[in-house]
What we know:
single chain, alpha+beta, Serine Threonine Protein Phosphatase 5, Tetratricopeptide repeat, 13 helices, 8 strands
Amino acid sequence: MKRKCFTRFLYAALIFINLCFPAFIFAATIVLKSGDKIEGNIIGKDERYIKIDYKGAAITYYSFEVESIDGKAVAFPEAKTAQPATRAKNDSGEIVKVDAVSAEEYLKRGVTFYTKGNFYLALSNLDKALKIDPHYAQVYAVRGLVFNEQGNPEQAIEEYSKAIENNPNYGEAYYLRGLLYANKGKLDEAIGDYSKAIEMNPNYAETYVNRGLAYAYKGVGEHAEMKLRSPRAYILFKVGSFNQALSDCNKAIAINPAYMEAYFARARVYLFREEYDKSWEDVHKIETLGGKVSPDFLKDLKNASGREK
């Protein structure tokens, strides 16, 4: 029975790593006067503009573009906005046409088309942004999101790598690349990227959970043959991996005590460690928070612990 539980858990852990946090948790919904909706964390605002963090990309929307925030109409003071220049003098003093659209504006358009599922136009606008500024790290990150949605994770990884190359302190790019590495079973690479993301932002609970799951999955999957060659060495390795997994889950819960996914991840690790009472405690905590636990996981926990709740 325990072998069945173990096998099921391996599968569930991989699925959880694949599906856990494909996107960030957003704080606000901005409705533009064009009718488009963008979700993001507000990181700056005054009478002229509102700046949001869209999956790691800082985007500015000016007062005349914004209709409402979280359903509430926004009344910005009237502001005179200079029209972008369409002509300028070159070094020879000749009047020439210039691109009136900035790289950031193309990024904004790319994000808008991405949220609508129009990936062709999203990439078209992002490409234009890179023609203006080929070192715009956030554009590469959004391109990564688009390629991943198109079912091309390899290209997405390349885009996140370019984002990191142009901005080595880009924590979100490390996090997103780490998710894709985990999906591909490249757990050492995933753990490395999660660790870099934590270095950039030690208060991001989701990263701890995903790193903890990567450690847990590594502990039971990558070294399965060790169990046959040297059971004692395998146990020592597994305990070390699970201790790291628990540590990360505990850090995530410390950052956000209402974070149900962290309790669910920790309940899985406790099941692996055969600490069934603690696993049940986390299940009950999730239910207290208003969440529901996977029926397959509950079945495995009931079979392994010999109790119903």
